[in-house]
Amino acid sequence: MNRNELYEKYAKVLVESGVNIQKNQPVQIRIPLYPECLEFAKYLVEHCYKRGASYVKVKYMNGYIDKICINNSSYEVLEEIPDYRIDELKYDQNHNICSISITSFDPDAMKGIDPKKMRAGNVAFQKKAGRDIMNYFGSNKGQWCIAGFPNVKWAKLIYPELSDDEAFDKLFLKILETSHVTIDNDPVEEWYQHNKTIQKHCAILNEYNFKELHYKNSLGTNLIIKLPVGHIWCGGCEETNNEKKISFNPNMPTEEVFTCPQRDGINGIVYASKPLVYGGNIIKDFYIKFVNGEIVDYDAKEGKEYLKAIIDSDEGSKYLGEVALVPYHSPISMSNILFYSTLFDENASCHLAIGAAYETTVKNTDGKSEEELKKMGINDSAVHVDFMVGTSDMEIVGITYNNQQIPVFIKGDFAF
Length: 416
Fold this sequence. Notes:
Elements: H1 3-19, E1 27-32, H2 35-51, E2 56-61, H3 63-72, H4 75-78, H5 83-94, E3 98-103, H6 115-138, E4 144-148, H7 152-158, H8 164-178, H9 187-208, E5 212-216, E6 222-226, E7 234-235, E8 238-239, E9 247-248, E10 251-252, E11 257-259, E12 266-271, E13 276-278, E14 281-291, E15 294-302, H10 304-311, E16 320-325, H11 331-334, H12 342-345, E17 351-355, H13 370-375, E18 384-388, E19 395-399, E20 405-410, E21 413-414
Parallel strand pairs: 1-2, 1-3, 3-4, 4-10
Antiparallel strand pairs: 5-6, 5-19, 6-12, 7-11, 8-9, 11-16, 12-14, 13-14, 14-15, 16-17, 17-18, 19-20, 20-21
Helix pairs in contact: 1-2, 1-9, 5-6, 6-10, 7-8
């Protein structure tokens, strides 16, 4: 099967199993401005229309241009969000838009960006415009899907010994494999079966209804995470939070089951097991310490200034919003590849997220105010940044409300 045939197959599964576009539904595609990605964009747009989309809006992203603009703009300019951007987001929500976001890592694109200016622009956008659209997708009012696609620089970072074309093709095949797309299979059916496996783990965890989880490993992690009353373990496919109940897969690939931690119920220290790429910048060998949910100490051997930018984003970025479980022996982990992309690396490892929680991971949140959600233990923030903590020797014990201790992870994998 040649590249074009693989592009065709990949686009089909993202449109059908990823966002599951409905008849006459608008679609937004966000895609990086690389020649390789632009070629794939044509296949995505075509499949959206074949599926019945009313219109398809393509937004191109370029990290190099973004870096130049951010580094050379004043804080006043960065913090001013034009009305037309707010109006566009409102229009999209009012017309029930769904979203496909393609991620493609470039090790040089955002290198050298001013972290303070980057944070200022991101926070201003989220506060003035992005929070509503984040809540729209975060509460599953519309379908969304994030998926990966290679570029030559990314491929050469992972396979420096290969030619440009060979590295690109090898990385693309790895992305397809981890996304359950192979030459011979029906990926739509494959995703249906994969979702059943993930939902089995969700059902077991929901049945236990743990009060808290206790993490330990040889890196030094010793962390207790309290879970809010009414928490829900989710994973794999989800459903829209409306009368249509449209199923979709937010992340392709995905191996995780996840829920909401209690905002003020996290104590201890956790060590990252993999580098974190944030805004194109790499944060390595870091730890974070929590007291009553709040981050009180942290350090990193590389990229500490970018870790600081995340944590200092707003009040909520000093707390966690997600706890996710991923078996160490997942397909991505067993590929022995560091993808330098959170989408892939988080699915090779148990992970946590700094910032906003998903309302869908706690019962009875509909119609609740921000203050009411906070009282329920649900964190709110303009950011949501995953970082990896799982290892081959990770031990996780679940504590029930009658103080039973149930092994959840033994030597990095599910105990059940």
